[in-house]
Design a protein that fits this description.
The complex is a heterodimer of chains A (about 70) and B (about 300). With about 70 residues, chain A is mainly α. Chain A is built from three helices and no strands. Helices cover about 55% and strands about 0% of the residues of chain A. Chain B is an all-alpha fold and about 300 residues long. Chain B is built from 14 helices and no strands. The longest helix of chain B has 29 residues, at about 275-305. Classes of the chains: A mainly alpha (about 70), B mainly alpha (about 300). At the A-B interface, α2 of A face α3 and α5 of B.
């Protein structure tokens, strides 16, 4: 019995595996696209940065920055 | 030793076999009516979100088709028209169809909720439940009115499309639902009158076999009479307009005339001209639905240029 790296099952199921791969890639693209659209629909994307845990000088209101 | 395999199946199901589980032809009608429901709504939807919503509705409808094929595999195997479907022909295992149906139902519903709103997702989930459980598991084998109540499952898509855009239900979306709901029985029974079916062998009660062909002819006319006011009423709502009304009047007169012609006939006349009238009315019923939803789409486009509707 020779050691086969490529099992015949791989060949038989090639179309199916490629199909599933394509579906998964499309799913990723859809989730990514939805994320982009949803974030852009927030209007001011900078609002999103306020949820960060790092101090962002650009988010400090202008009045307090000039004092 | 190298020939040992866990299964003696020689055929390996491909993507096409799994896709066939989703009933692509039914899916195309679902996509069209849901798209019209979405575009006719007064609230604009971002194109990408609209695309994802329609995809979810289509996949949800396909999932319910897979669940239907899983449950009805025994019936399908006994009827010529359906014997070639993936499960009865042995290309796909019943368990695979169940798994695909459940998984796609879950994905489609959750993604629709995240992409749009909970009402649209709830309506999609209810549609899947209605088709797979209420229609397939319960009504189909229990009553010759199966096609009437089961038609509701096919009538939900424009309502879901409307809910995607507006987040609600309104008279317009209810009337779009009612249009498909009332259209399904005369459409299907016109087909049943000229197709030699083997539903009886499969144990599925069909009106033509339980109550006879004369009763079926009467049903076609009565349901068409109920359909007409729904189609006309839709023309007076915010999504209707002169163009839709013109199409509706012509198509309803045409369909009503066909239903009347069917009602006047008997079996001898049908045999004499090989169901010429029934075949014609069935074709008219297809044009009927396409024309109504197409006209709603035209009205939506005209409104973009400020010339649609009654104002």
């Amino acid at each position: 019995m020779t050691l086969q790296v490529e099992h015949e099952l791989h060949e038989r199921r090639k179309g199916r595996n490629y199909g599933l791969g394509l579906i998964l890639l499309s799913f990723i693209a859809i989730i990514f696209g939805l994320t982009v659209v949803k974030v852009l629909q927030l209007g001011d994307a900078a609002q999103f940065e306020k949820f960060d845990h790092v101090v962002r000088p650009q988010l400090i209101p202008q009045e307090s920055a000039s004092e | 030793m190298s020939d040992i395999s866990a299964s003696d199946r020689t055929y390996e199901a491909g993507m096409g076999d799994y896709f066939a589980l989703l009933k692509p032809r039914v899916m195309s009608l679902v996509v069209f009516t849901a798209l019209v429901g979405l575009l006719a709504a007064p609230v604009p939807v971002h194109p990408f979100i609209g695309f994802v919503a329609i995809l979810c509705i289509a996949v949800g409808a396909g999932a319910s088709g897979a669940l239907n094929m899983w449950w009805d595999a025994d019936i399908d195997a006994r009827m010529k028209r359906t014997a070639g479907r993936p499960i009865p022909s042995g290309r796909v295992e019943p368990g695979e169809a169940l798994g695909i149906g459940l998984a796609l139902s879950g994905f489609a519903t959750v993604l629709l909720a995240l992409a749009t709103n909970f009402l649209a997702a709830f309506l999609l989930a209810f549609t899947i439940f209605f088709y797979a459980v209420i229609y397939s598991m319960w009504l189909k084998r229990a009553t010759p009115q199966n096609i009437v109540i089961g038609g509701a499952a096919g009538a939900f898509p424009p309502m879901i499309g409307w809910a995607v855009a507006t987040g609600g239900v309104s008279i317009e979306s209810v009337l779009m639902f009612a249009l498909i709901f009332m259209w399904t029985p005369p459409h299907f029974w016109a087909l049943a009158l000229f197709v030699k079916s083997d539903y009886g062998n499969a144990g599925v009660p069909m009106l033509t076999e339980t109550h006879g062909r004369d009763a079926t002819r009467k049903h076609v006319l009565v349901y068409t009479l109920f359909l007409v006011p729904v189609a006309i009423w839709l023309g007076f709502t915010s999504i209707g307009g002169p163009f839709y009304m013109a199409v509706a009047v012509i198509m309803n007169a045409w369909f009503l005339k066909g239903a009347y012609d069917i009602w006047r006939r008997d079996d001898a006349a049908c045999e004499a001209d090989r169901h010429k009238v029934e075949i014609k009315v069935f074709k008219v019923s297809l044009y009927y639905l396409f024309a109504h939803f197409g006209a709603l789409l035209v009205e939506a486009v005209l409104r973009l240029y400020g010339i649609g509707g009654w104002s």
